[in-house]
Amino acid sequence: MQAFTNNQSGLFALEMLLRLRGGTVTIEDLRQKVGEGPVGVTEVLRSARAQGFRARSRSVSWDKLAGLTLPCIAGLRDGGFLLLGKANEEKVLVVGANSPRPVLMMREEFEAVWDGRVILVEQGKAGLIPRLDKAVTMRARQALATTARWGADNTRTAVSGLATRSQALQQAIITRSTDEKRLRSLELAFLPAALEIVETPPSPLGRIIGLSIISVFAAALVWACVGTVDIVAVAPGKIIPSDRTKMIQPFETGVVRAIRVRDGQNVKAGDVLIDLDTTTVEAELGHLQGDLMAARLDIARLQAAIDNKDNSLAAFKPPADAPADLLQVYRGLLVSQGSEQKAKLATIDGQLAQKTAERDTIQASVDKLKSTIVPLQQRVEIREQLFQKELGSKVTYLTELQDLVAQRQDILVQEKRGNETNAAVVALVETRAKTVAEYERTLFDDLSKARQKAAGLERDIVKAEQRKSLQRLTAPVDGMVQQLAVHTVGGVVTPAQTLLYVVPAESRLEIEAMISNRDIGFVSAGQQAAVKIDTFNFTRYGLLHGTILSISQDAIARDKAPGNGSDKTSGAANDSSEPRGQELLYSARISLDRTQLAIEDKQVNLSAGMAVTAEIKTGRRRIISYLLSPLARYQHDSLRER
């Protein structure tokens, strides 16, 4: 872009603004309108109006810039002009006469050069009709006029001239196109954001990439519709003997007393493998047996006390194997218990006899007092008559009356004492009966507890004897000892610690494979399986083949290994109803067609414990159905409530 002076910056800004408003004017056209003199606000307004636009100048503050119809022309303090495109509270987008591209100016920077005036330009009411550049139009007219003047007799010269004019026209169009492209980026920067996106031409690279993606997708779609893949159920597992390897484990913590086998030794069923120390178990067993004998003696003692209260010692029937010292103790306890009860009853009987005698004495006193009431009553009546006839004194009458009242009160007191004594006698009778009942209840309760204790001790003795027998580890089957883990007499073993393995003799090798819950519906007994031995690379040493013998009827739940969230089977769904953190597996047993592999020109026998992977082919499916299966599942599961 050519350099402009401050005198020409107004024409440059006006040209850019008119182009943004739809005009096709050039800076040369504007110069012809204003001449070669200085270009100020008046000249800019006159030039814009000459092109059919409405133009006006106004002074505004910074806060009102964003509300104007932008873009517009901003006047500068040095007499120049800037094309103002966009404005906000902090900065503006402007283009100067000598700027190759739009620049952002901060508010302070812009206000330092801005004189506060703007020139607003809008289209006229009739609008503008886009025109070709005048230079292009003139060249086209000259070419056509020249061709028309030339006659047919000078055809060659006419054609040559036409070609020259055409080249000039083409050059003018190219020049015009180049100028427009150079200004196009500046024009787009001043359009609103939405129009800037619409007017910006698309990049051809996007179309090329889009067509390439469509082509690849179409080829992949055709291949997916035609191609098929195998559906394979992958089941990891290991080689096991058909009779399973037997683990030898202690029942509880113990100390090794003797080791009677060594690694690789052949044993028969029932042979002793390891002896553990039985001191603790024997001590506990002896303690339990002593407690059981004491419980049985308690039962015999209590039963004798219940059966014969007067002579319980005669009814005492202890166990035949009871020690003599314990018999003496329990006989003494039986006699002491009976004597204690008799003493309690004797005490109550003595109190009862005392209260009965006291009651009889009180009753006799009451009878005596009642017998004197009648004479006293008569004496009072006689004294009353004499007093009324004034033959006796009143004092004598009152004395006799007082004696009668006192006698009656004494009778009442004695009767109440008699009632109290009767109540005491009744209470003592009830106390005696309660004591007898309490004694019998205690005997029955103690007898019941003793019998329960004896029954519990008998069960504990059975368990202790079983524990004692478990301290001697024996071979469950005929086989060979492997992986002996203890070699120190006196060493400590823990519960469920594997001390050794016994591999059953003459047992064929099989595979125990774990089939996923997702695949079990497509696997059945009798299907063929390809077996990979993890120890030997199958790409180098080949595969083994086998037949599924049996499948468990129920799933085995086990913890899911970390990172085992993906399924190895093709076409498996990504979701699962298995318990969180667990996986459900079915155990399958697979027979092998051979138990040897050719390794480096020699036959190597397979051994129990080798890890394997069994691949069971369950069918084939097209690739497109494999890809669409998630969509089909989502379609089925969507738009449902609960």
UniProtKB/TrEMBL annotation:
One of its GO terms (cellular component) is plasma membrane. It holds the Pfam family Peptidase_C39. Residues 559-579 are annotated as: Disordered. PROSITE patterns: HLYD_FAMILY, PEPTIDASE_C39. SUPFAM superfamilies: HlyD-like secretion proteins. It is found in: Cell inner membrane. Residues 2-121 form the Peptidase C39 domain. Residues 566-576 have a biased composition (Polar residues). It is a single-pass membrane protein. Keywords: Cell inner membrane, Cell membrane, Membrane, Transmembrane, Transmembrane helix, Transport. GO terms for biological process: protein secretion; proteolysis. Gene3D superfamilies: 2.40.30.170, 2.40.50.100, Cysteine proteinases, Helix hairpin bin. Belongs to the membrane fusion protein (MFP) (TC 8.A.1) family. NCBIfam families: type_I_hlyD. PANTHER family: MEMBRANE FUSION PROTEIN (MFP) FAMILY PROTEIN (PTHR30386:SF27), MEMBRANE FUSION SUBUNIT OF EMRAB-TOLC MULTIDRUG EFFLUX PUMP (PTHR30386). This is Membrane fusion protein (MFP) family protein.
